[in-house]
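Whiteboard transcription, Tuesday session. T.W. wrote the structure tokens on the left side:
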């Protein structure tokens, strides 16, 4: 059995990122393999949820690669696996972390036609992954139109807005989309700082012709943060002539800034004028709904289980920039990966308070983040925690995956809502009071010998504010 498990882990290690591999496979083991069914045990309920969401199909795939006939994969919680060296695999010794050769710093560029170079665009920035809301709808529409009508519509396209609102994402997404539509197009994305540094380098080496060839024979030139050209006369001179050469040749220019063209300071008026020739669009801070959508989209990257309440709390209280949203999300992911815990709203509030002591939270009481006032709410908390439906908790199913959440729900309703056994039984599918009493006593007995279940109860109590 151990041999099969190591073979499966060998394939999984190639697919799952290192932090997730060492966290979620640490105290896992193969419980049985019979009649084409793999039963995999994990030590904690939170691990069960993660595996059911992320690795079931992967296990089926890697089992096939290993020549195993597997028709189904079932995950079960087995708390005795934690620390049991005879039934689990020492990941550190069997799968030591591979050391990576460090690359020397240098320009992120690739060779293109005629010896020119194009700064590498980050592939994660795409139009599909850009969350559209009322704050950026016009900018997105203009960006999409430009990719389909390069050099003929909205030229130049000037995008402005505050720091961390998604301008760079949109700029690079345009470049990636143009490359996807026509790989033969020459696209250069460059920050104003890099452009300035290259001007200085070309002057010092007396090689301005090579610099001009680099930038004046492209299909799309994207300049990020043009406001930093302020006071740099020679840089502005080169940009002015580069702009003219591209525009006259029907090539596309896209520019971004933290302010509108008319508000640019220490920028020559002739450059300001050209920035206004085409389409000028602004990007504002997204509204609550868009911020929430951004958090959900970003969270997909980390494949972590995060409570909807946490997402809503962050979206409600972070409204300065998208980068700040991502920063708080990273704090949450760090709690999951490094502290091995499922963050509550209160945990996130504490972390945010450390970053900004002056922050005043809205819709949040540090002592009782959420109050479970009735049995329906209790069941919803338990449902989210154990990843089962409320209808299953209150229904007739009697398998272990449902029985434990049902017993937990009844226990919490009895202990903290102080309801009669009869009333609890009526809510849970019309059960009699003796069934409820048995469930409560059963859970109390389990709590004395199952420290993981005890942690689950403490987590739920904290979430409910009881």
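and on the right, the sequence the group agreed on:
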């Amino acid at each position: 059995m151990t041999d099969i498990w190591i073979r499966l882990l060998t394939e999984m290690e190639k697919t799952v990122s290192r932090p997730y591999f060492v966290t979620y496979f640490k105290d896992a083991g193969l419980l049985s393999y019979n009649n084409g069914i793999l039963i995999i045990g994990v030590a904690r309920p939170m691990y069960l949820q993660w595996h059911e969401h992320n690795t079931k199909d992967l296990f089926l795939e890697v089992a096939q690669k290993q020549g195993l006939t597997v028709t189904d994969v079932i995950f079960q919680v087995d708390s005795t696996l934690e620390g049991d060296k005879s039934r689990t695999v020492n990941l550190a010794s069997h799968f030591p972390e591979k050391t990576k050769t460090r690359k020397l710093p240098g320009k992120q560029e690739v060779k293109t036609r005629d010896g020119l170079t194009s700064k590498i665009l980050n592939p994660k920035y795409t139009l599909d992954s850009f969350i559209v809301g009322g704050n950026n709808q016009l900018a997105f529409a203009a960006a999409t139109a430009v990719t389909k009508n390069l050099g003929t519509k909205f030229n130049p396209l000037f995008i402005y807005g505050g720091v961390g609102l998604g301008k760079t994402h949109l700029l690079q997404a345009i470049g990636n989309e143009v490359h996807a539509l026509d790989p033969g197009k020459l696209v250069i994305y460059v920050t104003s700082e890099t452009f300035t540094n290259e001007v200085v380098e070309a002057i010092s080496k007396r090689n301005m012709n090579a610099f001009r060839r680099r930038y004046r024979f492209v299909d799309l030139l994207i300049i990020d943060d043009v406001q930093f050209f302020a006071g740099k006369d020679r840089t502005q001179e080169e940009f002015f002539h580069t702009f003219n050469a591209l525009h006259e040749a029907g090539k596309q220019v896209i520019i971004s800034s933290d302010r509108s063209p008319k508000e640019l300071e220490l920028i020559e008026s002739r450059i300001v004028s050209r920035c206004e020739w085409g389409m000028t669009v602004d990007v504002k801070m997204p509204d609550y709904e868009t911020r929430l959508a951004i958090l959900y989209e970003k969270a997909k990257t980390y494949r972590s289980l995060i409570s909807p309440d946490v997402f809503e709390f962050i979206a409600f209280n972070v409204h300065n920039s998208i980068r700040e949203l991502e920063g708080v999300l990273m704090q949450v992911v760090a709690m999951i990966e490094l502290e091995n815990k499922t963050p509550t709203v209160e945990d996130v509030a504490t972390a945010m308070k450390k970053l900004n002591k002056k922050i005043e939270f809205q819709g949040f009481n540090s002592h009782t983040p959420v109050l479970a006032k009735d049995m329906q709410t209790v069941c919803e908390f338990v449902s989210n925690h154990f990843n089962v439906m409320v209808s299953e908790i209150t229904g007739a199913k009697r398998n272990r995956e449902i029985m434990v959440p049902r017993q937990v729900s009844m226990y919490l309703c009895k202990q903290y809502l102080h309801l009669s056994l009869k009333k609890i039984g009526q809510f849970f599918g019309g059960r009699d009071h003796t069934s409820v009493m048995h469930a409560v006593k059963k859970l109390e007995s389990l709590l004395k010998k199952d420290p993981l279940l005890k942690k689950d109860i403490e987590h739920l109590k904290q979430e409910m504010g009881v």
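Someone added at the bottom: The two ends are 44 Å apart (CA to CA).
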